[in-house]
Design brief:
- The chain is mostly helical.
- The protein has a domain of 49 residues.
- Helices cover 36% and strands 0% of the residues.
- It has two helices and no strands.
- The protein is flat, with a radius of gyration of 21 Å.
Length: 88
């Protein structure tokens, strides 16, 4: 990869990741729908079901949902890519 400015390299990596996630979703659906596709020459797909608990916020009493003592706000850095001039 040529020496790119960090902003350009990050934008390029995110574009690659977006394409790969789309391809992964297509392949995931295919192997879930057709078990015969799960065996390859170099890899095998193993499907397991995992359970996880979630809170259904719609079922909580409104006095809990509205009470700030039950909530925590955290700041997380978010990097947005803005393309300008030229090609992507």
């Amino acid at each position: 990869m040529p020496c790119l400015p960090p902003a350009d390299e990050l934008a390029q990596i995110r574009d690659d990741l977006r394409r790969l996630k789309i391809r992964e979703a297509v392949l995931r659906r295919a192997v879930l729908d057709d078990p015969s596709l799960r065996e390859g020459t170099q890899a095998r797909v193993v499907v397991r079901v995992q359970k996880r608990r979630e809170i259904d916020l719609a079922q909580l009493p409104s006095e809990i949902v509205k009470d700030g003592r039950y909530w925590r706000i955290e700041d997380t850095p978010l990097l947005l890519i803005e393309h300008h001039g030229g090609t992507r």
